[in-house]
Amino acid sequence: MPRALSPAQVEDFRERLCAAAEHLFAEHGPEAVTMRQLAAELGVSPMTPYRYFKDKDDILAAVRAAGFGRFAQAMEAAFHGEPDPVKRSEAVGRAYARFALEQPDAYRLMFDLSQPNEADYPELVAASSRARDMLIGQAKGMVDAGQIEGDPVLIAHMLWAALHGGLVLQLAGKLGPSIDPSALRRNTFQAILKGLAKG
Amino acid sequence: MPRALSPAQVEDFRERLCAAAEHLFAEHGPEAVTMRQLAAELGVSPMTPYRYFKDKDDILAAVRAAGFGRFAQAMEAAFHGEPDPVKRSEAVGRAYARFALEQPDAYRLMFDLSQPNEADYPELVAASSRARDMLIGQAKGMVDAGQIEGDPVLIAHMLWAALHGGLVLQLAGKLGPSIDPSALRRNTFQAILKGLAKG
DNA sequence: CACCTATATTTTACGTCGTAAACTTATATC
DNA sequence: GATATAAGTTTACGACGTAAAATATAGGTG
Q1: Chain B residues close to A164, C-beta within 8 Å
Q2: Is the pLDDT score of B166 beyond 50?
Q3: Is A2 left (phi over 0), alpha (psi -120 to 50) or beta?
Q4: Interface residue of A187, A189, A194 to substitute, partner B, most B CBs within 10 Å
Q5: What is the DSSP annotation of chain B?
Q6: For A8-39, how does the pLDDT look when each residue is reduced to its tens digit (9 = 90+)?
Q7: What domains can be seen in chain A, in order of their start residue?
Q8: pLDDT tens-digit profile of A155-197?
Protein backbone atom coordinates (compact mmCIF):
# COMPACT_ATOMS: atom_id res chain seq x y z
CA MET A 1 0.00 0.00 0.00
CA PRO A 2 1.10 3.63 0.09
CA ARG A 3 4.56 4.48 1.18
CA ALA A 4 3.16 5.99 4.38
CA LEU A 5 -0.04 6.85 6.13
CA SER A 6 -0.86 10.53 6.57
CA PRO A 7 -1.13 11.70 10.18
CA ALA A 8 -4.75 12.53 9.47
CA GLN A 9 -5.46 8.96 8.41
CA VAL A 10 -3.77 7.63 11.50
CA GLU A 11 -5.78 9.95 13.69
CA ASP A 12 -8.94 8.97 11.87
CA PHE A 13 -8.37 5.29 12.50
CA ARG A 14 -7.53 5.89 16.15
CA GLU A 15 -10.67 7.92 16.65
CA ARG A 16 -12.91 5.39 14.95
CA LEU A 17 -11.47 2.63 17.05
CA CYS A 18 -11.83 4.66 20.25
CA ALA A 19 -15.45 5.39 19.44
CA ALA A 20 -16.19 1.72 18.93
CA ALA A 21 -14.21 0.81 22.04
CA GLU A 22 -16.03 3.31 24.20
CA HIS A 23 -19.39 1.84 23.23
CA LEU A 24 -18.31 -1.73 23.81
CA PHE A 25 -16.37 -1.00 27.01
CA ALA A 26 -19.41 0.82 28.30
CA GLU A 27 -21.76 -2.03 27.55
CA HIS A 28 -19.71 -4.97 28.73
CA GLY A 29 -16.70 -3.63 30.64
CA PRO A 30 -13.19 -3.39 29.18
CA GLU A 31 -12.19 -6.89 30.21
CA ALA A 32 -15.07 -8.46 28.36
CA VAL A 33 -14.27 -6.71 25.09
CA THR A 34 -11.77 -8.46 22.87
CA MET A 35 -9.31 -7.06 20.40
CA ARG A 36 -10.94 -9.28 17.81
CA GLN A 37 -14.32 -7.65 18.41
CA LEU A 38 -12.86 -4.18 18.16
CA ALA A 39 -11.14 -5.03 14.90
CA ALA A 40 -14.30 -6.58 13.50
CA GLU A 41 -16.23 -3.44 14.43
CA LEU A 42 -13.99 -1.47 12.03
CA GLY A 43 -14.05 -4.24 9.46
CA VAL A 44 -10.33 -4.98 9.68
CA SER A 45 -8.41 -8.07 10.67
CA PRO A 46 -7.66 -8.77 14.34
CA MET A 47 -4.06 -7.59 14.16
CA THR A 48 -4.61 -4.27 12.39
CA PRO A 49 -5.31 -2.22 15.55
CA TYR A 50 -1.80 -3.08 16.71
CA ARG A 51 -0.49 -0.75 14.01
CA TYR A 52 -2.22 2.17 15.74
CA PHE A 53 -2.08 1.23 19.41
CA LYS A 54 0.61 -0.52 21.39
CA ASP A 55 -1.79 -2.93 23.01
CA LYS A 56 -5.20 -3.19 24.63
CA ASP A 57 -4.24 -1.06 27.63
CA ASP A 58 -3.15 1.65 25.25
CA ILE A 59 -6.65 1.70 23.76
CA LEU A 60 -8.18 1.86 27.22
CA ALA A 61 -5.94 4.80 28.13
CA ALA A 62 -6.95 6.63 24.94
CA VAL A 63 -10.64 6.07 25.69
CA ARG A 64 -10.19 7.32 29.23
CA ALA A 65 -8.31 10.41 28.07
CA ALA A 66 -11.07 11.18 25.59
CA GLY A 67 -13.56 10.89 28.45
CA PHE A 68 -11.62 13.36 30.57
CA GLY A 69 -11.53 15.71 27.59
CA ARG A 70 -15.30 15.73 27.20
CA PHE A 71 -15.67 15.98 30.95
CA ALA A 72 -13.51 19.09 31.25
CA GLN A 73 -15.27 20.55 28.23
CA ALA A 74 -18.70 20.07 29.80
CA MET A 75 -17.63 21.83 32.98
CA GLU A 76 -15.90 24.62 31.11
CA ALA A 77 -19.06 25.23 29.12
CA ALA A 78 -21.06 25.50 32.34
CA PHE A 79 -18.43 27.82 33.77
CA HIS A 80 -18.47 30.23 30.86
CA GLY A 81 -22.24 30.12 30.57
CA GLU A 82 -22.77 31.64 33.99
CA PRO A 83 -21.13 34.94 35.04
CA ASP A 84 -22.27 35.06 38.68
CA PRO A 85 -19.62 33.27 40.82
CA VAL A 86 -22.13 31.69 43.19
CA LYS A 87 -24.53 30.41 40.58
CA ARG A 88 -21.48 29.45 38.62
CA SER A 89 -20.34 27.01 41.28
CA GLU A 90 -23.72 25.35 41.22
CA ALA A 91 -23.71 25.25 37.44
CA VAL A 92 -20.32 23.56 37.35
CA GLY A 93 -21.40 21.11 40.04
CA ARG A 94 -24.53 20.27 38.08
CA ALA A 95 -22.51 19.83 34.89
CA TYR A 96 -20.20 17.48 36.79
CA ALA A 97 -23.08 15.37 38.08
CA ARG A 98 -24.86 15.42 34.73
CA PHE A 99 -21.79 14.10 32.99
CA ALA A 100 -21.35 11.30 35.53
CA LEU A 101 -24.99 10.26 35.28
CA GLU A 102 -25.47 10.65 31.54
CA GLN A 103 -22.20 8.96 30.67
CA PRO A 104 -21.83 6.63 33.62
CA ASP A 105 -19.67 4.20 31.77
CA ALA A 106 -17.22 6.86 30.70
CA TYR A 107 -17.16 8.19 34.25
CA ARG A 108 -16.65 4.70 35.60
CA LEU A 109 -13.79 4.10 33.22
CA MET A 110 -12.20 7.43 34.11
CA PHE A 111 -12.29 7.04 37.87
CA ASP A 112 -12.31 3.31 38.34
CA LEU A 113 -9.75 2.15 40.83
CA SER A 114 -7.42 -0.65 39.85
CA GLN A 115 -6.80 0.54 36.34
CA PRO A 116 -3.45 0.02 34.66
CA ASN A 117 -0.87 2.49 35.91
CA GLU A 118 -1.98 5.79 34.48
CA ALA A 119 1.47 7.38 34.79
CA ASP A 120 2.47 5.35 31.72
CA TYR A 121 0.09 7.39 29.58
CA PRO A 122 1.03 11.11 29.56
CA GLU A 123 -1.97 12.00 27.41
CA LEU A 124 -4.21 10.56 30.12
CA VAL A 125 -2.43 12.42 32.91
CA ALA A 126 -2.80 15.69 31.00
CA ALA A 127 -6.50 15.20 30.32
CA SER A 128 -7.09 14.32 33.93
CA SER A 129 -5.23 17.39 35.19
CA ARG A 130 -7.24 19.61 32.93
CA ALA A 131 -10.43 18.48 34.66
CA ARG A 132 -8.91 19.01 38.09
CA ASP A 133 -7.64 22.50 37.22
CA MET A 134 -11.11 23.36 36.07
CA LEU A 135 -12.49 22.56 39.52
CA ILE A 136 -9.75 24.53 41.24
CA GLY A 137 -10.34 27.59 39.06
CA GLN A 138 -13.98 27.37 39.96
CA ALA A 139 -13.24 27.35 43.70
CA LYS A 140 -10.89 30.32 43.28
CA GLY A 141 -13.78 32.27 41.80
CA MET A 142 -15.93 31.58 44.84
CA VAL A 143 -13.25 32.61 47.30
CA ASP A 144 -12.44 35.76 45.31
CA ALA A 145 -16.12 36.67 45.30
CA GLY A 146 -15.87 36.72 49.08
CA GLN A 147 -18.57 34.21 49.86
CA ILE A 148 -16.33 31.73 51.61
CA GLU A 149 -12.83 31.66 53.00
CA GLY A 150 -9.95 29.24 52.86
CA ASP A 151 -7.42 27.80 50.43
CA PRO A 152 -9.13 27.51 47.04
CA VAL A 153 -7.18 24.38 46.14
CA LEU A 154 -8.27 22.66 49.34
CA ILE A 155 -11.83 23.87 48.95
CA ALA A 156 -11.98 22.59 45.39
CA HIS A 157 -10.87 19.17 46.59
CA MET A 158 -13.40 19.17 49.43
CA LEU A 159 -16.29 19.83 47.08
CA TRP A 160 -14.88 17.47 44.51
CA ALA A 161 -14.46 14.63 47.01
CA ALA A 162 -18.00 15.08 48.32
CA LEU A 163 -19.50 15.19 44.83
CA HIS A 164 -17.44 12.30 43.53
CA GLY A 165 -18.08 10.20 46.62
CA GLY A 166 -21.85 10.56 46.34
CA LEU A 167 -21.76 9.77 42.64
CA VAL A 168 -19.63 6.65 42.88
CA LEU A 169 -21.66 5.30 45.76
CA GLN A 170 -24.73 5.88 43.63
CA LEU A 171 -23.19 4.24 40.57
CA ALA A 172 -21.99 1.31 42.69
CA GLY A 173 -25.50 0.84 44.08
CA LYS A 174 -24.32 1.36 47.63
CA LEU A 175 -26.70 4.15 48.68
CA GLY A 176 -29.49 3.19 51.04
CA PRO A 177 -32.94 2.68 49.53
CA SER A 178 -34.40 5.82 51.10
CA ILE A 179 -31.73 8.12 49.71
CA ASP A 180 -32.45 10.52 46.85
CA PRO A 181 -29.03 10.90 45.22
CA SER A 182 -29.65 14.39 43.91
CA ALA A 183 -30.87 15.59 47.32
CA LEU A 184 -27.78 14.03 48.84
CA ARG A 185 -25.56 16.02 46.49
CA ARG A 186 -27.43 19.29 47.09
CA ASN A 187 -27.40 18.93 50.86
CA THR A 188 -23.74 18.01 51.03
CA PHE A 189 -22.75 20.87 48.74
CA GLN A 190 -24.73 23.38 50.78
CA ALA A 191 -23.52 22.06 54.12
CA ILE A 192 -19.91 22.40 53.06
CA LEU A 193 -20.41 25.93 51.76
CA LYS A 194 -22.24 26.88 54.93
CA GLY A 195 -19.46 25.37 56.98
CA LEU A 196 -16.92 27.43 55.06
CA ALA A 197 -18.92 30.67 55.13
CA LYS A 198 -17.06 33.74 56.32
CA GLY A 199 -17.34 34.73 59.95
CA MET B 1 -12.05 -40.51 49.56
CA PRO B 2 -14.50 -40.17 52.42
CA ARG B 3 -18.12 -40.68 51.73
CA ALA B 4 -18.63 -36.94 52.21
CA LEU B 5 -16.84 -33.80 53.24
CA SER B 6 -17.75 -32.33 56.62
CA PRO B 7 -19.09 -28.76 56.55
CA ALA B 8 -16.07 -27.77 58.62
CA GLN B 9 -13.70 -29.13 55.99
CA VAL B 10 -15.59 -27.32 53.27
CA GLU B 11 -15.43 -24.09 55.21
CA ASP B 12 -11.76 -24.61 55.90
CA PHE B 13 -10.97 -25.00 52.22
CA ARG B 14 -13.06 -21.98 51.27
CA GLU B 15 -11.31 -19.85 53.85
CA ARG B 16 -7.85 -20.95 52.85
CA LEU B 17 -8.64 -20.22 49.24
CA CYS B 18 -10.11 -16.80 50.07
CA ALA B 19 -7.03 -15.89 52.08
CA ALA B 20 -4.75 -16.78 49.19
CA ALA B 21 -7.04 -15.01 46.74
CA GLU B 22 -7.11 -11.85 48.80
CA HIS B 23 -3.33 -11.64 48.81
CA LEU B 24 -3.00 -12.29 45.10
CA PHE B 25 -5.94 -10.07 44.09
CA ALA B 26 -4.42 -7.33 46.21
CA GLU B 27 -1.03 -7.60 44.59
CA HIS B 28 -1.99 -7.97 40.95
CA GLY B 29 -5.69 -7.23 40.60
CA PRO B 30 -8.38 -9.90 40.26
CA GLU B 31 -8.14 -10.08 36.49
CA ALA B 32 -4.44 -10.88 36.59
CA VAL B 33 -4.88 -13.77 39.01
CA THR B 34 -5.68 -17.12 37.43
CA MET B 35 -7.62 -20.03 38.78
CA ARG B 36 -4.52 -22.14 38.13
CA GLN B 37 -2.43 -19.90 40.41
CA LEU B 38 -5.02 -20.01 43.17
CA ALA B 39 -5.16 -23.79 42.99
CA ALA B 40 -1.38 -24.05 43.01
CA GLU B 41 -1.27 -21.81 46.10
CA LEU B 42 -3.24 -24.46 47.99
CA GLY B 43 -1.31 -27.29 46.40
CA VAL B 44 -4.26 -28.76 44.53
CA SER B 45 -4.99 -29.27 40.89
CA PRO B 46 -6.51 -26.46 38.81
CA MET B 47 -10.04 -27.85 38.87
CA THR B 48 -10.34 -28.52 42.59
CA PRO B 49 -11.52 -25.01 43.57
CA TYR B 50 -14.57 -25.57 41.38
CA ARG B 51 -15.85 -28.03 43.97
CA TYR B 52 -16.01 -25.22 46.51
CA PHE B 53 -16.87 -22.19 44.38
CA LYS B 54 -19.09 -21.90 41.36
CA ASP B 55 -16.53 -19.95 39.36
CA LYS B 56 -13.99 -17.17 39.60
CA ASP B 57 -16.59 -14.46 40.19
CA ASP B 58 -17.89 -16.48 43.10
CA ILE B 59 -14.45 -16.37 44.68
CA LEU B 60 -14.25 -12.64 44.11
CA ALA B 61 -17.63 -12.14 45.77
CA ALA B 62 -16.52 -14.19 48.78
CA VAL B 63 -13.35 -12.13 49.13
CA ARG B 64 -15.31 -8.90 48.90
CA ALA B 65 -17.83 -10.06 51.49
CA ALA B 66 -15.01 -10.98 53.85
CA GLY B 67 -13.60 -7.49 53.36
CA PHE B 68 -16.92 -5.86 54.24
CA GLY B 69 -17.06 -8.05 57.33
CA ARG B 70 -13.69 -6.87 58.60
CA PHE B 71 -14.59 -3.32 57.64
CA ALA B 72 -17.81 -3.27 59.67
CA GLN B 73 -15.97 -4.94 62.53
CA ALA B 74 -13.27 -2.25 62.58
CA MET B 75 -15.86 0.51 62.74
CA GLU B 76 -17.92 -1.28 65.36
CA ALA B 77 -14.83 -1.64 67.53
CA ALA B 78 -14.16 2.10 67.24
CA PHE B 79 -17.80 2.80 68.04
CA HIS B 80 -17.87 0.73 71.20
CA GLY B 81 -14.48 1.96 72.30
CA GLU B 82 -15.66 5.55 72.64
CA PRO B 83 -18.71 6.51 74.72
CA ASP B 84 -18.86 10.23 73.91
CA PRO B 85 -21.07 10.71 70.82
CA VAL B 86 -18.98 13.51 69.33
CA LYS B 87 -15.60 11.88 69.80
CA ARG B 88 -17.27 8.69 68.70
CA SER B 89 -18.07 10.10 65.30
CA GLU B 90 -14.45 11.06 64.83
CA ALA B 91 -13.28 7.67 66.03
CA VAL B 92 -15.52 5.86 63.57
CA GLY B 93 -14.40 8.17 60.77
CA ARG B 94 -10.78 7.52 61.62
CA ALA B 95 -11.39 3.77 61.74
CA TYR B 96 -13.00 4.04 58.31
CA ALA B 97 -10.05 5.90 56.84
CA ARG B 98 -7.54 3.66 58.57
CA PHE B 99 -9.15 0.58 57.08
CA ALA B 100 -9.16 2.07 53.60
CA LEU B 101 -5.52 3.11 53.82
CA GLU B 102 -4.14 0.05 55.60
CA GLN B 103 -6.02 -2.41 53.43
CA PRO B 104 -6.30 -0.40 50.23
CA ASP B 105 -6.64 -3.45 48.05
CA ALA B 106 -9.51 -4.83 50.08
CA TYR B 107 -11.16 -1.42 50.02
CA ARG B 108 -10.60 -1.14 46.29
CA LEU B 109 -12.12 -4.55 45.73
CA MET B 110 -15.10 -3.71 47.91
CA PHE B 111 -15.98 -0.40 46.30
CA ASP B 112 -14.59 -0.71 42.83
CA LEU B 113 -17.07 0.23 40.18
CA SER B 114 -17.68 -2.19 37.33
CA GLN B 115 -17.64 -5.33 39.42
CA PRO B 116 -19.81 -8.28 38.53
CA ASN B 117 -23.41 -7.69 39.56
CA GLU B 118 -23.36 -7.85 43.31
CA ALA B 119 -27.07 -8.64 43.58
CA ASP B 120 -26.20 -12.20 42.52
CA TYR B 121 -24.34 -12.75 45.80
CA PRO B 122 -26.65 -12.36 48.84
CA GLU B 123 -23.77 -12.87 51.26
CA LEU B 124 -22.06 -9.85 49.71
CA VAL B 125 -25.19 -7.71 49.87
CA ALA B 126 -25.62 -8.56 53.55
CA ALA B 127 -22.02 -7.77 54.45
CA SER B 128 -22.23 -4.49 52.59
CA SER B 129 -25.47 -3.48 54.34
CA ARG B 130 -23.95 -4.20 57.71
CA ALA B 131 -21.24 -1.61 57.04
CA ARG B 132 -23.79 0.95 55.88
CA ASP B 133 -26.05 0.39 58.90
CA MET B 134 -23.02 0.94 61.11
CA LEU B 135 -22.55 4.41 59.61
CA ILE B 136 -26.22 5.25 59.96
CA GLY B 137 -26.28 4.21 63.60
CA GLN B 138 -23.31 6.44 64.19
CA ALA B 139 -25.06 9.47 62.65
CA LYS B 140 -28.16 8.77 64.73
CA GLY B 141 -26.01 9.02 67.83
CA MET B 142 -24.77 12.45 66.82
CA VAL B 143 -28.23 13.79 66.09
CA ASP B 144 -29.62 12.37 69.34
CA ALA B 145 -26.76 14.02 71.21
CA GLY B 146 -28.13 17.31 69.92
CA GLN B 147 -25.01 18.57 68.19
CA ILE B 148 -26.49 18.69 64.72
CA GLU B 149 -29.91 18.52 63.15
CA GLY B 150 -31.39 16.70 60.20
CA ASP B 151 -32.28 13.23 59.01
CA PRO B 152 -29.68 10.81 60.41
CA VAL B 153 -29.85 8.57 57.35
CA LEU B 154 -29.17 11.50 55.05
CA ILE B 155 -26.43 12.84 57.31
CA ALA B 156 -24.74 9.46 57.46
CA HIS B 157 -24.68 9.36 53.68
CA MET B 158 -23.34 12.91 53.44
CA LEU B 159 -20.40 12.13 55.68
CA TRP B 160 -19.90 8.76 54.06
CA ALA B 161 -19.87 10.21 50.55
CA ALA B 162 -17.37 12.90 51.54
CA LEU B 163 -15.09 10.44 53.28
CA HIS B 164 -15.32 7.83 50.56
CA GLY B 165 -14.83 10.40 47.83
CA GLY B 166 -11.64 11.75 49.35
CA LEU B 167 -10.29 8.25 49.88
CA VAL B 168 -10.96 6.95 46.40
CA LEU B 169 -9.52 10.05 44.80
CA GLN B 170 -6.45 9.52 46.95
CA LEU B 171 -6.23 5.83 46.09
CA ALA B 172 -6.72 6.61 42.40
CA GLY B 173 -3.90 9.17 42.55
CA LYS B 174 -6.18 11.98 41.43
CA LEU B 175 -5.56 14.44 44.25
CA GLY B 176 -3.46 17.47 43.41
CA PRO B 177 0.19 17.39 44.48
CA SER B 178 -0.27 20.04 47.18
CA ILE B 179 -3.08 18.22 48.93
CA ASP B 180 -2.59 16.46 52.26
CA PRO B 181 -5.21 13.72 52.16
CA SER B 182 -5.70 13.54 55.89
CA ALA B 183 -6.13 17.32 56.15
CA LEU B 184 -8.63 17.09 53.31
CA ARG B 185 -10.66 14.52 55.24
CA ARG B 186 -10.54 16.49 58.49
CA ASN B 187 -11.54 19.77 56.87
CA THR B 188 -14.38 18.26 54.91
CA PHE B 189 -15.72 16.43 57.94
CA GLN B 190 -15.62 19.56 60.06
CA ALA B 191 -17.11 21.79 57.38
CA ILE B 192 -20.08 19.46 56.98
CA LEU B 193 -20.66 19.24 60.71
CA LYS B 194 -20.40 23.02 61.03
CA GLY B 195 -22.81 23.39 58.14
CA LEU B 196 -25.27 21.09 59.89
CA ALA B 197 -24.87 22.66 63.33
CA LYS B 198 -28.05 23.61 65.11
CA GLY B 199 -29.31 27.18 64.85
C1' DC C 1 -11.47 -59.47 54.38
C1' DA C 2 -13.01 -58.44 49.58
C1' DC C 3 -15.97 -55.74 46.98
C1' DC C 4 -18.97 -52.18 45.64
C1' DT C 5 -20.48 -47.55 45.54
C1' DA C 6 -20.27 -42.71 46.11
C1' DT C 7 -17.55 -38.82 45.90
C1' DA C 8 -13.03 -35.94 46.06
C1' DT C 9 -9.60 -34.93 42.93
C1' DT C 10 -7.03 -35.04 38.78
C1' DT C 11 -6.48 -35.38 33.82
C1' DT C 12 -7.75 -34.30 29.48
C1' DA C 13 -9.78 -31.39 26.22
C1' DC C 14 -12.12 -27.30 23.96
C1' DG C 15 -12.84 -22.80 22.50
C1' DT C 16 -11.05 -18.11 23.17
C1' DC C 17 -7.93 -14.71 24.44
C1' DG C 18 -3.76 -11.23 23.58
C1' DT C 19 -0.29 -10.74 20.57
C1' DA C 20 4.52 -12.17 18.13
C1' DA C 21 6.15 -13.40 13.76
C1' DA C 22 5.84 -14.57 9.10
C1' DC C 23 3.69 -13.60 5.03
C1' DT C 24 1.06 -10.95 1.38
C1' DT C 25 -0.22 -6.99 -1.07
C1' DA C 26 0.12 -2.64 -3.10
C1' DT C 27 2.25 1.65 -4.12
C1' DA C 28 6.10 5.60 -4.52
C1' DT C 29 10.38 6.08 -6.08
C1' DC C 30 14.18 5.20 -9.31
C1' DG D 1 9.05 -1.81 -14.82
C1' DA D 2 11.93 -3.50 -10.92
C1' DT D 3 12.44 -2.76 -6.14
C1' DA D 4 12.09 -1.15 -1.49
C1' DT D 5 8.86 -0.21 2.04
C1' DA D 6 5.04 0.00 4.69
C1' DA D 7 -0.15 -1.56 5.51
C1' DG D 8 -2.68 -5.29 6.34
C1' DT D 9 -3.58 -10.40 6.87
C1' DT D 10 -2.64 -15.07 8.20
C1' DT D 11 -0.72 -18.20 11.01
C1' DA D 12 0.84 -19.71 15.33
C1' DC D 13 1.74 -19.96 20.42
C1' DG D 14 1.14 -20.18 25.17
C1' DA D 15 -2.29 -19.22 28.68
C1' DC D 16 -6.84 -18.65 30.17
C1' DG D 17 -11.68 -20.36 32.27
C1' DT D 18 -13.95 -24.36 32.74
C1' DA D 19 -16.82 -28.77 30.87
C1' DA D 20 -16.39 -33.63 30.66
C1' DA D 21 -14.10 -37.84 31.36
C1' DA D 22 -11.06 -40.53 34.01
C1' DT D 23 -8.98 -41.87 38.37
C1' DA D 24 -8.36 -42.65 43.09
C1' DT D 25 -9.85 -43.27 47.72
C1' DA D 26 -12.79 -43.85 51.56
C1' DG D 27 -16.73 -45.98 53.76
C1' DG D 28 -20.73 -49.53 54.04
C1' DT D 29 -21.99 -54.33 53.19
C1' DG D 30 -21.41 -59.53 52.26
Answers
A1: 165, 168-169
A2: yes
A3: beta
A4: A187
A5: --SS--HHHHHHHHHHHHHHHHHHHHHH-GGG--HHHHHHHTTS-TTGGGGTSSSHHHHHHHHHHHHHHHHHHHHHHHHHT--SHHHHHHHHHHHHHHHHHHSHHHHHHHH-SS-S-GGG-HHHHHHHHHHHHHHHHHHHHHHHTTSB-S-HHHHHHHHHHHHHHHHHHHHTT-S-TT--HHHHHHHHHHHHHHHHB--
A6: 889 999 999 999 999 899 888 899 999 999 99
A7: 1-53 (1.10.10.60), 65-196 (1.10.357.10)
A8: 999 999 999 999 999 999 999 999 999 999 999 999 999 999 9
State whether residue A197 is helix, strand or coil.
strand
- Separation between Cα atoms, residue B183 and residue B190, nearest integer Å: 11
Chain D: bases < 7 Å from a protein Cβ? 5-11, 15-21, 24-28
Q: Is the shortest CB-to-strand distance from A4 to strand D under 7 Å?
A: yes
Distance in Å from D27's C1' to B47's CA comes to 24
